[in-house]
Amino acid sequence: MEIGARLKEAREAKNITLEELQQITKIQKRYLQAIEKGNFDVMPGRFYVRAFIKEYAAAVGIDSEALMEEYESELPKVTDDSSIQYTRAQRNRKESASSSKSPAIFSFLPSVAVVLLIVGAIFLVWYFYQLSVTNDAPQSGQQDNGEEEIIIESDPEEPNDPEASTDNEESDNNNGGNSETPKEDESDEKPAEKEPQLNVVNQDTESGEPVTVYELVNPGDSVVVEFETDTKSWLQVENGKGKSFYSQTLQADKSPIQFDLTGEEKLYFRVGSAPNLAISINGVPLTYEVDPNEEVLQRIWIEIGNQTK
């Protein structure tokens, strides 16, 4: 019995089809058929004849070494006998063992790279967004970033000077005999109205956003605040009780704007771009006590002096 018939008989005895044998040995069906028919000329080379026969024999439960010795005369000769020992099954086992030894970390590298790219893209979007709004509208969250709001209470009214009262009483007594002075003289002696002034009362540069407190002296019978910009600036206007009059970006085409805040005791301004925003109260320009080129974001309190009723 030839070697091909021997192998075919063993295959059929185990009820293995050629298709199943192809899946087991990874050898193409046409080569398996050629082995069974003894047609070794269709093989890709002499080495593959012996290698495929060993694969076939191992799959159907025949001792491949004994089979090769028994049919040595039927098989084509090869120059390198050692290469016969290397079968496809051995190669698969070695490749599997080699791949199992590879560090598991390499399987995660593609996923890690994708995650890093996504994180990097998100960071760049966030960074450029922050740059675009630095001189526009400071986010409202910044006002609640843990900084304590500084509330400057107005100084209590100074008590009447007792010496001045005494002097006034003495003056009244001395002028008692002149009570019949004409009313025309009293009208001529009225003092001239004093001009309004903005004086710095307090300053705090240690709490993040610098805070400056001004006092408006001699406000007169009205308080009118004007804001003007050539570009744009964030602006927030409130009174001392937190009532909001304006809270948005002031654009150049909407500038200047005025607010009649007569009757308010305190005013609060939050400026997002101090170099680009001019402030005046009753026509008196407000000078930034903190250099606006160094601190573009500033908070300002205005204490209103006694207003003419």
Q: Could you give the order of strands across the largest sheet?
A: 1-2-10-7-4-5
Radius of gyration: 50 Å
Shape: rod-shaped
Q: What characterizes the major β-sheet? A: 6 strands, mixed
| Assembly level | single chain
Strand content: 15-25%
Flag low-confidence runs. 81-86, 140-144, 177-182
Please trace the helix and strand order, writing H or E for each element: HHHHHHHHHEEEEEEEEEE
Query: N- to C-terminal separation?
Result: 131 Å
Query: Based on the structure given, which CATH architecture of the domain at 194-304 is correct?
Result: Sandwich
**Residue-averaged pLDDT:** 79
The count of strands amounts to 10
Class by alpha and beta content: alpha+beta
Tally the helices. 9
CATH class of the domain at 194-304, named: Mainly Beta
Helix content: 25-40%
State the CATH topology of the domain at 194-304. Immunoglobulin-like
Protein name: Helix-turn-helix domain-containing protein
Keywords: Membrane, Transmembrane, Transmembrane helix
InterPro entries: Bact_Cytoskel_RodZ, Cro/C1-type_HTH, Lambda_DNA-bd_dom_sf, RodZ-like_C
Transmembrane segments: 104-129
